[in-house]
From TrEMBL:
GO cellular component terms, A-Z: nucleus
The protein, known as: Sugar phosphate phosphatase
Keywords: Hydrolase, Manganese, Metal-binding, Methyltransferase, Nickel, Transferase
GO MF terms held by the record: metal ion binding; phosphatase activity; protein carboxyl O-methyltransferase activity; pyrophosphatase activity
Reactions this protein catalyses: L-glutamyl-[protein] + S-adenosyl-L-methionine = [protein]-L-glutamate 5-O-methyl ester + S-adenosyl-L-homocysteine; beta-D-fructose 1-phosphate + H2O = D-fructose + phosphate; beta-D-fructose 6-phosphate = dihydroxyacetone + D-glyceraldehyde 3-phosphate
EC number: 2.1.1.-, 3.1.3.-
PANTHER family, alphabetized: DAMAGE-CONTROL PHOSPHATASE ARMT1
Domain Damage-control phosphatase ARMT1-like metal-binding: 27-419
Role description: Metal-dependent phosphatase that shows phosphatase activity against several substrates, including fructose-1-phosphate and fructose-6-phosphate. Its preference for fructose-1-phosphate, a strong glycating agent that causes DNA damage rather than a canonical yeast metabolite, suggests a damage-control function in hexose phosphate metabolism. Has also been shown to have O-methyltransferase activity that methylates glutamate residues of target proteins to form gamma-glutamyl methyl ester residues. Possibly methylates PCNA, suggesting it is involved in the DNA damage response.
Length: 443
């Protein structure tokens, strides 16, 4: 016990809105209330256009959701203490136990918005939104972010078309290449970077505003290359090749819309090139951080791809549906991903999920929130090693593909952070800079 607290003492502080020059402060003060306002607007609009199948109960439910979320916004803006959840979702008990523990550790004071850990509070906000839906009579399946996610897909449709047309040509040519390994390595780098930059397109960083990919991502890769602050892709390539194609690769997904399509392209390339045998995807069990992929979003995306009259889109839409049926693609939606725990806690808090991930030969974590959870959302020195920041989370070799959208990053060279800041003051939060960090340690 003493040894454990010694280690904890050495850890940096959690990111928090108590640091007024931080992105956490800006997020809690400005960005989160804006997201909630947009949700309330959407719920009101929905209420006015609700089909007859939901009847008066449906309208009443939506009115209650809007009231609940407006109250939550007021609680945040007036820095009220966090309160227990009152619905009966399967994870309610865990959330309330966490709150109790945090309250005890804080001299019997519940966490508050402008002084407690940002990661916990931001997750709690999304869980409270879900609470308002769980308490409904007839609208329990309602996703308050559905419209923005679907619109994000439609606004990226041209970019999706171009990308999938390129994928179609690539997949057809893989077998015909003369210097197979060399070209596969280049294509691997390309699809890894496509998936990486797909992460620029989330709707949480844009506070729910349209943030779609409207131009061809492939044309931008060369230009974006210098913005990859850490690029471990050669090590990842070498590692994957030691597995001789027999591997299972897990992708811990982030956002729906264009980003999801880029992840599916990476998965398709890995299978078609024989670099992996199966791909396991991990999505969210409930709507989360505005644009994160739920099971409904995943099926919606495949259905919409299949239904278009663009050749590449419809072909992959159908092929990917088949891949789910033949189990070369497997989908998981574990509740752990929508709890406020960082990943170092997975081994004790979600034993089964940890064991499942340990079956992978490589785990690819997408996006900013997954990165924050990998490194514990702590105020690390930018030159700290990625391995140290993981604090013992090593279910399998893992890589993070993340565009920087919060003020924490590790693994940089001495002076690299300062240099980047000189070029771009908001480099840590504007999504224009990125990392591909790999850790091959396993325990
Ligand atoms: O979709 P991503 O890449 O996880 O980004 C979501 C990020 O946006 C933010 O909401 C910005 O506040 C972060 O909290 C979060 O890490
Ligand atoms: Mn996200």
């Amino acid at each position: 016990m003493a040894a454990e607290s010694e280690v904890q003492k050495k850890l940096p502080a959690s990111l928090s809105a108590k640091f007024q020059d931080s992105f956490a402060y800006l997020t809690i003060k400005d960005r989160m209330p804006v997201i909630l306002t947009k949700v309330v607007d959407f719920v009101h609009r929905k209420k006015n256009n609700l089909g007859p199948e939901f009847g008066e109960d449906g309208a009443e439910d939506l009115k209650n959701i809007a009231g609940h979320i407006s109250k939550l916004r007021y609680e945040i803006q007036t820095d009220k203490p966090v309160v227990p959840l009152e619905d009966d979702r399967s994870d309610t008990i865990i959330w309330n136990q966490i709150l109790e523990k945090l309250t005890n550790e804080n001299g019997n004071e519940p966490p508050k918005w402008f002084s407690s850990a940002w990661l916990y509070l931001e997750c709690y906000m999304y869980r409270r939104i879900q609470e308002s839906v769980e308490l409904c009579k007839v609208m329990q399946d309602f996703d308050v972010f559905e419209e923005s996610k679907n619109n994000a897909f439609y606004s990226s449709e041209l970019a999706i078309q171009t990308l999938l047309t390129n994928l179609l040509v690539t997949v057809d040519n893989i077998e015909k290449e003369s210097d197979k390994k060399l070209s596969e390595n280049l294509l691997f780098q390309q699809f890894l970077q496509v998936s990486l930059w797909g992460n620029k397109c989330d709707l949480s960083i844009s506070a729910g505003m349209d943030n779609a990919q409207t131009s061809c991502i492939l044309d931008q890769l060369q230009f974006l290359k210098d913005n990859i602050l850490i690029n471990d892709s050669s090590q990842i390539w070498n590692y994957i090749n030691t597995k001789k194609g027999g591997s299972r690769i897990d992708i811990v997904l982030d956002n729906a819309g264009f980003e999801l399509v880029t992840d599916l392209c990476l998965a398709e390339f890995l299978l078609s090139a024989g670099l992996a045998k199966s791909i396991h995807f991990h999505g969210k069990a409930m709507p989360w951080f505005v644009s994160d992929v739920t099971s409904t979003d995943f099926s919606w995306t495949l259905k919409n791809l299949s239904a278009t009259n663009n050749l590449a889109m419809s072909k992959f839409g159908r092929l990917w549906q088949d891949r789910i049926e033949d189990k070369s693609w497997v989908l998981h939606f574990d509740t752990f991903w929508t709890l406020p725990f960082d990943f170092a806690k997975m081994k004790s808090e979600a034993v089964e999920l940890y064991k499942e991930l340990a079956k992978a030969d490589l785990i690819i974590f997408k996006g900013d929130l997954n990165y924050r959870k990998l490194v514990g959302d702590l105020n690390w020195n930018t030159t700290e090693t990625f391995e140290t920041s993981l604090r013992g989370f090593h279910p399998a070799p893992l890589v993070t593909l993340r565009a920087l959208k919060s003020d924490v990053v590790v693994g940089l060279k001495e002076g690299q952070g300062e240099e980047t800041k000189e070029k771009d003051q908001s480099w840590m939060v504007n999504g224009n800079w990125a990392v591909i960090s790999f850790c091959d340690k396993t325990i």
